[in-house]
Design goal:
Elements (H helix, E strand, L loop, with lengths): L44 H10 L25 E2 L2 E2 L4 H11 L13 H10 L2 E2 L7 E6 L11 E8 L4 E9 L5 E9 L5 E5 L2 E9 L13 E6 L9 E2 L11 E8 L5 E7 L4 E6 L9 E2 L11 E8 L5 E7 L3 E7 L9 E15 L5 E7 L4 E6 L9 E2 L11 E8 L5 E7 L4 E6 L9 E2 L11 E8 L5 E7 L3 E7 L9 E14 L5 E7 L1
Antiparallel strand pairs: 1-2, 3-9, 4-5, 4-9, 5-6, 6-7, 8-9, 10-11, 10-31, 12-13, 13-14, 14-15, 16-17, 17-18, 18-19, 19-20, 20-21, 21-22, 23-24, 24-25, 25-26, 27-28, 28-29, 29-30, 30-31
Helix pairs in contact: 1-2
């Protein structure tokens, strides 16, 4: 039987978030989840919760890419402080996992495990029957029934036919605690689960989450907000067009405008391009199809990008189904200018960003697989296409994915996935000179970060925020600080095929990801 590790018996009255040894030791971080590459079937909210938790196995209090665990908008405080465990954090972990899966009514949670009991009482979801994704809480014997601080809380990861359960919990094992899994543990309320310093700890009950993201499918579009202080809201599904509960997308793009709203484009599963806006208060306008060129009712796009301009317009660049490059503008009034073809060039992929002076800088991957740069000046004229030099002295840069961000100082930062699969970064300085490509370090000690999709945006303080889909099919985040140092990649715990990011005027960032 598992035993609780090295916590004094004098602290049993405060065992709200204590550690417990695991039946099975974690062998490391599991770089996968229900949102993993190749998953095509629908899953339940409980499945999603469990797989988010499983994606953190092996992590300590400063897991989640060093960001720690807690549910933003609750009374929870971060499990990580200064790179170390801030406090016992089992409840923080449950709150974080639930929040990332859209569970509702989390405001009552705090750092104590008994706040989950309060959640269950408030929502009428306390019970004795386990379900996958439930919180399971434990209480030491020998205390009065009126004492409501339970010593530990975790997430039910399996309900077995023999009446046992598996669970995944944070702050488990020997100090410092980790995210680990227990298997084949007694599942009946009142069962003894382990002992610590001669005190038995019993299973006290289950709490079902309210709401959440059920029936997630490959291609569903999700949205998440990173606040200016680095906390994440958790991914939430984006409703579809024509009343559909979700938007099934093949790719997506997002930008912000000075009013702190974001403008979003996505290609539906009908192949057509759709637009929606998200206002600063969090409400959405709803999707509307974009009319095509030459009188066509819809615009069918192979690649597209959108840039929020300083005057409130949003400029769009897209590759039509004829392979040509097209330009459009959504005016600040909400009307559309209409598509115009950008010369006779064709492209595989496009990216556009706004500059502080009102210009728009553009990258494309041409039909030859090479990267080219252009500028659409504020007066409406074009600079013309110029090849972008490669890395390691190569005359040209061959890439599979590209993105760029206009910085407050007039520079443009560029990221690309080279044809070797690795991510590279460059800067086109405000004077027009190029810094040159350099590889972006990978996770841990890896020399390079290998990715299939990449996005970059700027924030008002001069930092740049990056998202990418790693070669494990999981979405990651990184930041390049104003001084040139890098934060390092952290997993967003979400399997994706495409990602995009927009920096907002209030210092936050918004991420779109197509589940894969």
């Amino acid at each position: 039987m598992p035993t609780v590790s090295s916590r004094s018996s004098a602290k049993l009255a405060k065992l709200a978030r204590t550690t417990l040894a695991t039946a099975i030791a974690a062998s490391g971080v599991i770089a996968g989840s229900v949102f993993s590459a190749g998953t095509a079937h629908a899953v339940t909210t409980g499945d999603s919760i469990v797989n988010t938790a499983a994606g953190q196995l092996g992590n300590a209090a400063c897991g989640n890419g060093g960001r720690g665990y807690y549910a933003s908008g609750t009374g929870q405080s971060n499990s990580c402080s200064g790179g170390q465990e801030a406090h016992a954090w089992c409840a923080d972990f449950v709150g974080w996992v639930w929040a990332r899966n859209g569970v509702q009514n989390l405001g009552v949670l705090n750092d104590l495990a008994n706040s989950l009991q309060t959640y269950g009482n408030n929502n009428g979801t306390l019970g004795s029957t386990p379900h996958v994704g439930d919180a399971v809480f434990f209480h030491p014997s020998g205390y009065s029934t009126g004492y409501t601080t339970y010593d530990h809380v975790a997430i039910v990861s399996a309900v077995n036919s023999d009446g046992t359960i598996d669970w995944i919990g944070g702050n488990q094992g020997s100090s410092p605690g980790y995210v680990t899994r227990n298997t084949r543990m007694p599942g009946a309320v009142g069962s003894k689960e382990w002992s610590v310093n001669g005190v038995n700890v019993h299973l006290a009950g289950y709490i079902r989450p309210v709401g959440g993201q059920a029936a997630v499918q490959r291609g569903d579009l999700f949205h998440e907000v990173r606040d200016p202080w680095g906390s994440w809201s958790g991914f939430a599904a984006v409703n579809g067009y024509a009343g559909a509960p979700s938007f099934n997308a093949s790719q997506e793009a997002i930008t912000s405008t000075p009013d702190k709203s974001t403008q979003t484009l996505a290609a539906g599963n009908d192949g057509n391009l759709y637009h929606t806006a998200r206002y600063a208060n969090g409400s959405w306008t709803g999707w509307a199809p974009l009319a095509g060129y030459d009188g066509a009712p819809n615009f069918s796009a192979k690649s597209f990008s959108i840039a929020g301009m300083p005057n409130g317009d949003a400029q769009v660049l897209a590759v039509g189904n004829d392979g040509g490059i097209y330009f459009n503008t959504r005016l600040v009034s909400g009307s559309w200018q209409g598509w115009s073809k950008v010369g006779d060039w064709g492209a595989r992929k496009v990216a556009i960003t706004a500059m502080p002076n009102g210009d728009a800088q553009i990258l494309i991957i041409g039909n030859d697989g090479l990267v080219y740069h252009n500028i659409h000046f504020a007066n409406g004229t074009w600079q013309g296409w110029n090849g972008v030099a490669g890395y390691g002295g190569a005359a040209s840069f061959a890439a599979n994915s590209i993105s760029l961000a206009g910085m407050p100082n007039g520079d443009a930062q560029l990221v690309a996935v080279g044809n070797d699969g690795n991510v590279y970064h460059s800067i086109r300085q405000a004077n027009g000179s190029w810094q040159g490509w350099g590889p972006v370090a990978g996770v841990g000690s890896a020399t390079n970060f290998a990715a299939s999709s990449i996005g970059i945006t700027s924030t008002p303080n001069g930092d740049s925020q990056l998202v990418a889909v790693g070669n494990d099919g999981i979405a990651y985040h990184n930041a390049r600080f104003y001084g040139g140092s890098w934060q390092g990649w952290g997993s967003l715990g979400f399997g994706a095929v495409n990602v995009a990011i927009a920096g907002v005027a209030d210092g936050s960032s918004q991420v779109l990801a197509t589940h894969g």
